[in-house]
Structure formats: structure tokens, C-alpha cells
Amino acid sequence: MTALPAGPGEGPFRPEYPIRTQRLLLRPYQPGDTDAVYAYHRLPETARYLENEPMSLAEAKALVTRRIGSATLASVGEALNLVVELAKTRAVVGDCVLFWCGEGQAEVGYVLNPAYYGHGYATEAVGVMLRLGFEDLGLHRIAARCDARNTASARVMERAGLRREAHLVQSEFVKGEWTDELIYAILRREWQARQVPG
Fold first, then answer.
1. Disulfide-capable partner of 116 in 82, 93, 148, 167 (CB 3.0 to 4.6 Å)?
2. Rounded to whole angstroms, how far apart are CA atoms 34 and 31?
3. Beta pairing, strands 105-112 & 92-102
């Protein structure tokens, strides 16, 4: 497998956790996260535009168990799966992922608890993943995708600086129906240009 460009002699990439923003903490999954993750992954509105159905408690526990070990990137095909908390209260508001899908390329994703919609938390979390990808990993391009009906998710991508690259018509068969998909992406040079003040 291809080695991650983590710098000479540095080996696998593991950020210093928790990753702090103005309002959020991003950290690895822990065994005690099951109830908090189940609280929003069980909801129909959370699963509406995802490939999975609302989760049972057992499925949420299995999800947390699978993701506990995914806080380090060592090779293509691996992912950083992180829990998103409010810094002030430590309430779990969602989760996010940076999936290393190819040489110089990654995909970002996120799921937010509907109770915390409308506060910009998803955009803030995506900003962290973009920074990790471009600044720390030296990636060339980061993409994201969503069901075309999920206008809120599309707005998150746009606010984070990603541009729409494609609208794929009836490209996926999900939950018994053909659905459209939107593809967004941002290049490192585009991201860097957004970081320049003024």
C-alpha cells in the first residue's frame, strides 16, 4: 500500500486529540459513546439521505466499536472517523470522517444530530477536516457528496468552500429508488486562497 505523506520518518498520521475549534472538539470514538451516537443515528431524519436505515442500539454499538480504531491514517483506504462535541458542554453533536481514497485525494463526510441543525457546527467540523487534509497531509483534492435532495448538506459544503463539480442524475439506487447525487470538491490551492486574510 502507498504510505501516507506524513513527513520524513514520521510514519502514520495521527492528529493531536482533541482537535479544538472555537466551539467544537473533535476526538476519536470511545466505548462510552454508544448512547450518544444512538441518540441521533436512530432517528429517521438522520438516516433519510443516508444509505442505512435508522440504527438499533446494537447497530450503534457495532458502529462505535468499528470506529474506535480509526483515529490514525497509515495507507490508502483508511479513514479518520471522529466524534464532534460541543467544547463547552461536551455534548456529542455528530460525527465526521476524512477518507483517504487515493494518492493525494480524500473525501470528507459528516452526520449531525438534528437537534443541533442550523448552528454551523457541520461547516466548522468540515473546516477542521479540510485543514488536516491540506495542511497536515499535503493532499491535492478533497471531495464530498450528498443526495441531491439534501439541500442542507449541499449548503454545508458550499459554506466550507467546496464547489459543485457534478449533478449525477439517478446515479444511485438507495432504499428502493433511484436518486440524484451531488459531487463537491476543493483543491489545495483553492483552500489556501481562502485562508488569506482580506
1. 93
2. 7
3. antiparallel
Predicted local distance difference test score (pLDDT) of residue 2? 38
Domains of the chain: residue spans and CATH: 19-195 (3.40.630.30)
- The per-residue pLDDT for 109 is 97
The one-character DSSP state at 13 is B
Mention every residue, 6+ apart, whose C-beta is less than 8 A from residue 136. 13, 15
List, run by run, the mean pLDDT of 10-residue segments along the chain (198 residues). Answer: 42 92 97 96 95 95 95 93 97 97 95 96 97 95 97 96 97 93 97 80
With contact defined as beta carbons under 8 Å apart, do 180 and 148 qualify?
Answer: yes
Burial class, 88, CB count within 10 angstroms (exposed 0-12 / middle 13-18 / buried 19+)? exposed
The reported pTM is 0.91
How close are the terminal C-alpha atoms of the chain, in Å?
A: 41
Is the distance from CB of 51 to CB of 8 less than 8 angstroms?
A: no
Question: Is-contact 136 73, C-beta < 8 A?
Answer: no
Cβ atoms of 51 and 174 within 8 Å: the answer is yes
What lies within 8 Å, CB to CB, of 111 at 6+ separation is 40, 41, 46, 50, 94, 95, 96
